[in-house]
C-alpha cells in the first residue's frame, strides 16, 4: 500500500443556487487518520465528502490531497476510493469483476489484476464468494465487496458514506469493528460520514461536528463530549440540560438566576461569555434530599424512570425541567414523584455555552 | 359438522362459487376466441387436407418452395434491420435525454405516442412520395448532387417505414431503464477511474439492457407480424403478406396459409424467448435505489448545437409520414415533382360521406373491444391477485399469449373456425361484425390486462378486508371498494386498448366482409391501394389521426381528472 496522504480542506464554499450548503469550511486531516464528518441530515457532511470525491463543485476554496489541489480534477482522475451508502455494486458483474473494475480502468496487466483482486477479497474475507453475483450476497457481504472494490485500487484516501446505515443493528456493531481493524491494518487515511454519534465515537480518531454547513468543532470523541464548544455540540453528542437565565449579584458573589427565580451559585473565576447558558449532562448532576448543602438548586420530582443501572429523574425547577441520571445502588430508596429535592451540581459539571 | 368442514375447505382454497364461475366464463371466452382459432390453424397446418391425419408434408412444401423460403428470410432480415435502424435512432436520443440537461427531452418523449396514433401503413404511401425513387428527396438529391438514395426500393422501404415508426418502443423502454439506474452506480465507476463513452458502454448500457431488449424484441415482433405496410409498399415476399394472399386468393382450404401462420407464431415466440434468454441469469434490476437517475450534465454550446441538429433531423424523419400524409390529402396531382402541382380540399369532401360510416364503425368496435378488455382484464387480475384458485395463473398466461399471436394468424384462425358455424338464417358466424370486435379485444387484451393488474396490485388487501369485516360480501366489496379505487388504471387500460384497436388492421383485414361493416383502418387501406384513391385515402388518414388523437387526449384528461378527484393526482 502506498504511504498515507493527508487531506487539507481550505475555506471551501459550496452552494446550490441560493442554498449555501458549505460555509467557509476548513479542516486538516492528517495522514493515516480515521476521521468522521458528523452531523444531522442536511448539515453538509455528504456534500463535503462528495466534493473530495469530485462529484460536486466548490464556489471557492481548495481541497488538497497529499499537497496537491484536486478540485480541478474530474472524479476519475482523483484516485480517492469511495464506498457508497447504497454500495452501488454493479448487478451485471460478479463479485470478482466488480473488484477488478478499477484496476481494469487503470489498464493493469491481467496477472496483476488477478493478484490484487484476490488480495482485496482476502482482506475482506470473501475469497470464496468471488464468482457470485451481488444480488446473491447478504447486506454485510455486499458492504465488504464495496470496500474490497475500493481498496483494490489502493486509493490515496478512503471515503465512507454512511457505510453502516443499510445494515441491521447487530451487523452494524460487527462491521464497524471490521472497518476500524481494516483501516489500522492498511494505514489508509479514511473519512467517514455519519449522523450517528455512537458510530463516530467508536470508530474514529477525530470528529468534525457539522451543522448548517459550518464546522462546529473538531476533536477526539472525548474532547467533544467533555468540552463541547457550543450548545449544538453539547446537545448533539449525548444529552444535556440547557438552562436559560441571567447573572445576578448575590451578596458580592455571582449567581445564575434561571427562569422562575431559582439561583445557582457561580464557581469563582468562571469565565462566562455574554448570553451564555448553563449546561450540564444529566449524569454529572445528582439528586439529594433538601438541605444537603453544596451547590444545589431546589425543585420537585415530576417524573421518574428506572433504567436498571441508573435512575432518571425529571426535576421541575421553576419553569425548567432538569434531567438527572443517578446511579442506582441496590437497596437504596428512590425519590417519589412530588417530593422536594435538591439537584446538586459539582463545579466540574458546569459548562457555560453559547449557540 | 359437515358445514364446518365445507366452510373450512372453502376457506383453504379461498374460492367462492362466484369466483369459480367467473374463472370458467373467462376460460371459455379465451378458449373459444383465442385458443381454438390458433389451435385450428396449427391443426390444419399439421394435417392432411381432407383426411385429417398428421403430416409434415405441408412444411416440406413450405421449405421446398423458393418463394416461401425467400419470404421467411426476408421477414427475418426486415425485422432485424428495422430493429437495427430503430436502435440507431433511439440510442442517441435516449443517451442525450438521460445524460444531459436538454430542452428537447419533452418533445422526444411525446414522440413515443406517435405509433399509438397512426399505424405504419398509413404513412407508407406518403413516404413513397417523399423518399421513393422519384420522390421529393431523391428528386432534389438528383438535381443538386447527381445521385439518388434507394430509401424505398424493395425491402428497404419496409425497413425504413417500420424503423421510423417503431423506434419509440425502444426509446421509451430504454429511457425508463436509464431513469431507473441509481446515480451511485455511475459515480462508483467514475470514482474507480471510468468516464465518458467507456462508462456508458461498461456500466450504463448493460444496466439498461433489460429495457433495450424489451423494446427491441417488441419492435422485432411488430415488424415480423405487420401485414398492411408491406402490402401497400408492394413488398409481398414476406411471411405475413404471403399468408394473407394465400388465404384470400386461393381460399381458406389451402393449407399453405396455415403453415405460414405457424411459422409466424414460432418466429414471434422465438424472438420473445431469445430476448428473455439473453437476459437470463443476469440480475439487472437496480434494486439499490438511492440517488435515482443518472447525473445530468449541462451541454457545452457546440455540443448543444450538435444535439439539437441530431434531434431536429430525427424529428423531421419521424414526422415525414405525417407531413407527407397531410400534403397528399391536399394535393391534386403529386408525382415526379418535389411538391404537388396544386392544392385542393376536394378529397376531404369526397371522403366525408364515407368516413362518417367508418368513424361510426370504428367508434363502436374500438369502444366495445376496450370495454371487453377492461372487464376481462379486471376479472383476471382479481382472480390472480386475490384468490387461490387453482389454475388462475393459466388465465393470465393465456391472455398474455395473445401478444405472440400475429394479427394475420388470428384473422385466418377466425375465418377457418367460425366460417363453418352458421347462424339460424344461414350467415356464417365469421361474417358478423361482432367477430371483428372480439378479434380486436383479444389482440389488445394483454395491454389492458397489465394496466388492470398494476391498478389492482396497488390496492392494499386490508382495504378489502375492512369492507368484508363490516359486512360486505366479496362481490359487493369488488363493486363498491375495489373497482372505484382502480378507476384510474382501468381508464388507462381502456385508452390503450381503444386507441390501438381503432387503427388495428392485421387481424381485421380479412374479417371485414362488407364495406358497411368496415372500420376506418380498412377504408384507409382500400383507398390507399389505388393511385386514384391516394388523395381521398390520405384525407381519411388525416381524419383518422385526428380522431384517435382527440379520443386519446380526451380519455387521458378523464383519467387525470379521476385521479385528482380521488386525491391521487401525480
Layout of secondary structure:
The complex is a heterodimer of chains A (355) and B (570).
Chain A: E1 7-16, E2 19-29, E3 34-38, H1 45-53, E4 60-65, E5 68-69, E6 80-83, H2 95-105, H3 110-124, H4 139-151, E7 157-161, H5 169-186, E8 189-194, H6 197-203, E9 206-211, E10 214-219, H7 221-226, H8 231-236, E11 241-243, E12 245-250, E13 253-258, E14 263-265, E15 277-280, E16 286-288, E17 296-306, E18 310-317, E19 320-327, E20 340-344, E21 351-353
Parallel strand pairs in A: 3-8, 3-9, 6-7, 7-8
Antiparallel strand pairs in A: 1-2, 1-4, 4-5, 9-10, 11-15, 12-13, 13-14, 15-21, 16-20, 17-18, 17-20, 18-19
Helix pairs in contact in A: 2-3, 2-4, 3-4
Chain B: H1 2-13, H2 17-46, H3 57-64, H4 66-99, E1 100-101, H5 105-111, H6 114-117, H7 120-131, H8 136-145, H9 155-179, H10 183-191, H11 196-225, H12 228-232, H13 239-250, H14 256-279, E2 297-298, H15 301-329, H16 346-386, H17 392-401, H18 407-419, H19 433-457, H20 461-469, H21 474-501, H22 520-529, H23 534-565
Parallel strand pairs in B: 1-2
Helix pairs in contact in B: 2-14, 2-16, 2-17, 2-18, 4-9, 4-11, 7-9, 7-15, 9-11, 11-14, 13-14, 14-18, 15-23, 16-17, 16-19, 16-21, 16-22, 16-23, 17-19, 19-21, 20-21, 21-23, 22-23
Q: What does this protein look like?
A:
- The complex is a heterodimer of chains A (about 350) and B (about 575).
- In chain A, helix 2 (about 95-105) crosses helix 3, helix 2 (about 95-105) runs parallel beside helix 4 (about 140-150) and helix 3 (about 110-125) crosses helix 4 (about 140-150).
- Chain A contains 8 helices and 21 strands.
- In chain A, the strands form 5 sheets. Chain A has a 6-stranded mixed β-sheet, with helices on both faces. In chain A, strands 16-20-17-18-19 form a 5-stranded antiparallel β-sheet, with no helix packed on it. Chain A has a 4-stranded antiparallel β-sheet with strand order 2-1-4-5, with helices on one face.
- Helix content of chain A is about 25%, strand content about 35%.
- Chain A folds into 2 domains: about 5-230, P-loop containing nucleotide triphosphate hydrolases (Rossmann fold), CATH 3.40.50; about 240-355, OB fold (Dihydrolipoamide Acetyltransferase, E2P), CATH 2.40.50.
- By secondary structure, chain A is α+β, with helices and mostly antiparallel strands.
- Chain A has helices at about 45-55, 95-105, 110-125, 140-150, 170-185, 195-205, 220-225, 230-235, and strands spanning about 5-15, 20-30, 35-40, 60-65, 70, 80-85, 155-160, 190-195, 205-210, 215-220, 240-245, 245-250, 255-260, 265, 275-280, 285-290, 295-305, 310-315, 320-325, 340-345, 350-355.
- The longest helix of chain A is centred in the middle third of the chain and has 18 residues, at about 170-185.
- Mean pLDDT of chain B is about 80; it is low at about 1-10 and about 285-290.
- Chain B has a two-stranded parallel ribbon with strand order 1-2.
- Chain B has about 575 residues and is mainly alpha-helical.
- Helix content of chain B is about 75%, strand content about 0%.
- Chain B folds into 2 domains: about 15-50 and about 345-565, MetI-like (MetI-like fold); about 85-235 and about 315-345, MetI-like fold, CATH 1.10.3720.
Amino acid at each position: 500500500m502506498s504511504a498515507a496522504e493527508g487531506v487539507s480542506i481550505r475555506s471551501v464554499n459550496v452552494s446550490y443556487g441560493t442554498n449555501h450548503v458549505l460555509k467557509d469550511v476548513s479542516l486538516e486531516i492528517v495522514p493515516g487518520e480515521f476521521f468522521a464528518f458528523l452531523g444531522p441530515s442536511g448539515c453538509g457532511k455528504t456534500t463535503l465528502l462528495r466534493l473530495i470525491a469530485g462529484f460536486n463543485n466548490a464556489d471557492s476554496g481548495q481541497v488538497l490531497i497529499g499537497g496537491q489541489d484536486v478540485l480541478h480534477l474530474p472524479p476519475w482522475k482523483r484516485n480517492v476510493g469511495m464506498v457508497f451508502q447504497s454500495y452501488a455494486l454493479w448487478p451485471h458483474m460478479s463479485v470478482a469483476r466488480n473488484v477488478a473494475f478499477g484496476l481494469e480502468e487503470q489498464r493493469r496487466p491481467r496477472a496483476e489484476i488477478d493478484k490484487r483482486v484476490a488480495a482485496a477479497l482476502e482482506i475482506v474475507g470473501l475469497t470464496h464468494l468471488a464468482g457470485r453475483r451481488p444480488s446473491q450476497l447478504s447486506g454485510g457481504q455486499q458492504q465488504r465487496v464495496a470496500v474490497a472494490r475500493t481498496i483494490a485500487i489502493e486509493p490515496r484516501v478512503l471515503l465512507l458514506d454512511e457505510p453502516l446505515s443499510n445494515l441491521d443493528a447487530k451487523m452494524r456493531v460487527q462491521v464497524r469493528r471490521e472497518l476500524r481493524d481494516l483501516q489500522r491494518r492498511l494505514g489508509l487515511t479514511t473519512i467517514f460520514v455519519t449522523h450517528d454519534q455512537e458510530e463516530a465515537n467508536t470508530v474514529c480518531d477525530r470528529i468534525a461536528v457539522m451543522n448548517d454547513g459550518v464546522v462546529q468543532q473538531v476533536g477526539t470523541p472525548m474532547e467533544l463530549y467533555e468540552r463541547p464548544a457550543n450548545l449544538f455540540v453539547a446537545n448533539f453528542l449525548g444529552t444535556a440540560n440547557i438552562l436559560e437565565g441571567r447573572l445576578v449579584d448575590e451578596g458580592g458573589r455571582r449567581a445564575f438566576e434561571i427562569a422562575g427565580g431559582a439561583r445557582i451559585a457561580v464557581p469563582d473565576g468562571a469565565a462566562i461569555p455574554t448570553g451564555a447558558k448553563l449546561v450540564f449532562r444529566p449524569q454529572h448532576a445528582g439528586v439529594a434530599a433538601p438541605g444537603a448543602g453544596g451547590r444545589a438548586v431546589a425543585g420537585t420530582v415530576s417524573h421518574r424512570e428506572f433504567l436498571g443501572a441508573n435512575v432518571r429523574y425529571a426535576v421541575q425547577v421553576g419553569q425548567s425541567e432538569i434531567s438527572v441520571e443517578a446511579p442506582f445502588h441496590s437497596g437504596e430508596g428512590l425519590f417519589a414523584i412530588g417530593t422536594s429535592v435538591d439537584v446538586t451540581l459539582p463545579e466540574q459539571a458546569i459548562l457555560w455555552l453559547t449557540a | 359438522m359437515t358445514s364446518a368442514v365445507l366452510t373450512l375447505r372453502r376457506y383453504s382454497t379461498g374460492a367462492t362459487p362466484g369466483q369459480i364461475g367467473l374463472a370458467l366464463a373467462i376460460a371459455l371466452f379465451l378458449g373459444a376466441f383465442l385458443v381454438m382459432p390458433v389451435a385450428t390453424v396449427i391443426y390444419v397446418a399439421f394435417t392432411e387436407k381432407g383426411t385429417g391425419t398428421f403430416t409434415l408434408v405441408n412444411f416440406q412444401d413450405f421449405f421446398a418452395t423458393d418463394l416461401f423460403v425467400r419470404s421467411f428470410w426476408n421477414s427475418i432480415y426486415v425485422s432485424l434491420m428495422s430493429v437495427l435502424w430503430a436502435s440507431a435512432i433511439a440510442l442517441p436520443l435516449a443517451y442525450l435525454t438521460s445524460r444531459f440537461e436538454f430542452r428537447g427531452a419533452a418533445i422526444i418523449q411525446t414522440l413515443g405516442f406517435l405509433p399509438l396514433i397512426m399505424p405504419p401503413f398509413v404513412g407508407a404511401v406518403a413516404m413513397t412520395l417523399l423518399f421513393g425513387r422519384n420522390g421529393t428527396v431523391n428528386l432534389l438529391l438528383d438535381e443538386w448532387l447527381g445521385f439518388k438514395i434507394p430509401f424505398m426500393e424493395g425491402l428497404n422501404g419496409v425497413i425504413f417505414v417500420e424503423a421510423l415508426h417503431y423506434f419509440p418502443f425502444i426509446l421509451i423502454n430504454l429511457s425508463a431503464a436509464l431513469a431507473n439506474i441509481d446515480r451511485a452506480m455511475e459515480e462508483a465507476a467514475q470514482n474507480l477511474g471510468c468516464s465518458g463513452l467507456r462508462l456508458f458502454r461498461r456500466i450504463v448500457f448493460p444496466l439498461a439492457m433489460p429495457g433495450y431488449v424489451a423494446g427491441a424484441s417488441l419492435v422485432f415482433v411488430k415488424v415480423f407480424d405487420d401485414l398492411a405496410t408491406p402490402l401497400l409498399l408492394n413488398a409481398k415476399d414476406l411471411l405475413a403478406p404471403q399468408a394473407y394472399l394465400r388465404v384470400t386468393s386461393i381460399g381458406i382450404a389451402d393449407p399453405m396459409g396455415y403453415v405460414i401462420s405457424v411459422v409466424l407464431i414460432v418466429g414471434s415466440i422465438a424472438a420473445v424467448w431469445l430476448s428473455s434468454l439473453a437476459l437470463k441469469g443476469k440480475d439487472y434490476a437496480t434494486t439499490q435505489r438511492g440517488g435515482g437517475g443518472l447525473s445530468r450534465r449541462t451541454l457545452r454550446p457546440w455540443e448543444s448545437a450538435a444535439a439539437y441538429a441530431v434531434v431536429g433531423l430525427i424529428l423531421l424523419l419521424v414526422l415525414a409520414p405525417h407531413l407527407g400524409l397531410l400534403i397528399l390529402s391536399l394535393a391534386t396531382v403529386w408525382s415526379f415533382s418535389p411538391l404537388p402541382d396544386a392544392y385542393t380540399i376536394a378529397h376531404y369532401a369526397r371522403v366525408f360521406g364515407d368516413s362518417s360510416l367508418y368513424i361510426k364503425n370504428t367508434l363502436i368496435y374500438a369502444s366495445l373491444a376496450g370495454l371487453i378488455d377492461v372487464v376481462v382484464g379486471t376479472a383476471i387480475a382479481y382472480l390472480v391477485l386475490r384468490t387461490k384458485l387453482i389454475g388462475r395463473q393459466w388465465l393470465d398466461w393465456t391472455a398474455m399469449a395473445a401478444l405472440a399471436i400475429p394479427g394475420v394468424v388470428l384473422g385466418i384462425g377466425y375465418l377457418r373456425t367460425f366460417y363453418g358455424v352458421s347462424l339460424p338464417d344461414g350467415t356464417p358466424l365469421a361474417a358478423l361484425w361482432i367477430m371483428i370486435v372480439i378479434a380486436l379485444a383479444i389482440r389488445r387484451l394483454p395491454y389492458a390486462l397489465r394496466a388492470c393488474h398494476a391498478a389492482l396490485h396497488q390496492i392494499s388487501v386490508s382495504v378489502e378486508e375492512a369492507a368484508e369485516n363490516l359486512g360486505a360480501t366479496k362481490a359487493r366489496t369488488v363493486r363498491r371498494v375495489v373497482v372505484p379505487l382502480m378507476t384510474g388504471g382501468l381508464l388507462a387500460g381502456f385508452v390503450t386498448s381503444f386507441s390501438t384497436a381503432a387503427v388495428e388492421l392485421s387481424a381485421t383485414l380479412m374479417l371485414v366482409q362488407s364495406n358497411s361493416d368496415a372500420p376506418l383502418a380498412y377504408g384507409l387501406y382500400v383507398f390507399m391501394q389505388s393511385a386514384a384513391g391516394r388523395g381521398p385515402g390520405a384525407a381519411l388518414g388525416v381524419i383518422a389521426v385526428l380522431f384517435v388523437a382527440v379520443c386519446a387526449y380526451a380519455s387521458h384528461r378523464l383519467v387525470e381528472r379521476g385521479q385528482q378527484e380521488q386525491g391521487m393526482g401525480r
